[in-house]
Amino acid sequence: MKNDNDLKDLFEGLDFDIAEPTPRHEDRFREKLRQRSQTKKPRHNGLISLWLPVMAVAASFLVAVLIFQGIFNNPFTGEQELANVSPEMKQTQEFYSSVIRTELAALKEQKTPENEAVINDALTQLDILEKDYETLKKDLGKSGHDQRVIYAMITNFQKRIDLLKMVLEKVNDINTLKNTNHENKTI
């Protein structure tokens, strides 16, 4: 019985509100609920309820496309061109590429049987440098635009241009020697 006395002591000091609500309290409460429900406009009319599933499908499709592009176009995977680093690097790549194309066209124009071996050797060396550049493009993608890789790519361009210029000079020397040898001979 000691527990009963403890419970009585506990609840004696508390003041509970045990008054009954006034008459018609429930009726007034229901009337307020009814007024609130009438003033709220329905959230979904016919047009919105038709477009809601369509919009959900379109949003899902858009999210899927963005995720798909993110997986396959991650800037730090696969090959990266020098032009993808910055606008300045794009200009640099375009400049070097145009110089290489010009020098290569000039070299191919001067191809003769006398200098064919030199030109073919140069083209082989250019292929090696091009393969190195392809490896550097992969490294650039993996490294996240590391400055050392960018510098190596620019150096590769410069090596190709230097090689082409050197071969053009040798071809010009061969052509000059050929012309001077023919001029010195008397008939």
UniProtKB/TrEMBL annotation:
The chain crosses the membrane at residues 50-72. The lineage of its organism: Bacteria, Pseudomonadati, Bacteroidota, Flavobacteriia, Flavobacteriales. Keywords: Membrane, Transmembrane, Transmembrane helix. This is DUF4179 domain-containing protein. It comes from the Bacteria. The keyword Transmembrane helix applies.
